[in-house]
Amino acid sequence: MVYDFNGKKVWVTGASSGIGRCLADQLHEKGAHVFVSARNTEKLSENFSGKERITILPGDLTSADVNKNIVADIKASAGGLDCVIFNAGTAEYVDAYHFSAAPFERMIEANYFTMIRGIEAALPLLKESENAYLVGMSSSVGWQGLPSGQAYSASKAAIRNLFQGLKIELAPKNI
């Protein structure tokens, strides 16, 4: 099945660079109204200012309140939401010989809990859409841990498991 993004309202996180920026550009080309978020307001403005059907909503998505405010802004300006692509994240590496819990805490916070907080904020709007999609960016390293990448891999495995479970529960609601 092909999803038609023309006229859809799509929120993309981590849109200031990389995959998120490319996704936002591609969705815009397909006719979507794209809401872009990231911490780097300057990069968001540089990439998207002045583009019709792109709304810049910057913020630190580790905050539940920021997620709720962004979704409230989307609802106020567009009336709803059809698709969310949670792409915000970062990578940090571990030195097994100087092991510390700190990188794991930062990776789970930045890569996993940003999605948890975003889902909490966005799911009520997605439930109102006739054909909603909820997307969480993971990685192949979520299947296999890598040397020095244990913290990153663990956060991506958590995302994969979260979305596998949500898919089963939300499918009957057409999400």
Q: How many β-strand runs?
A: 5
Biggest pleated-sheet summary: 5 strands, parallel
- Please report which band the strand proportion falls in: under 5%, 5-15%, 15-25%, 25-35%, 35-45% or over 45%: 5-15%
Q: What helical percentage do the residues reach? A: 40-55%
Q: Which structural class do you get from the secondary structure elements?
A: alpha/beta
Shape: globular
Strand order of the largest sheet: 3-2-1-4-5
Task: Give the end-to-end Cα distance, rounded to a whole number of Å.
Answer: 14 Å
Estimated radius of gyration: 16 Å
Uncertain residue segments = none
Order of helices and strands: EHEHEHEHEH
Please tally the helical runs, counting DSSP H or I stretches of 4 or more residues: 5
Output mean pLDDT: 95
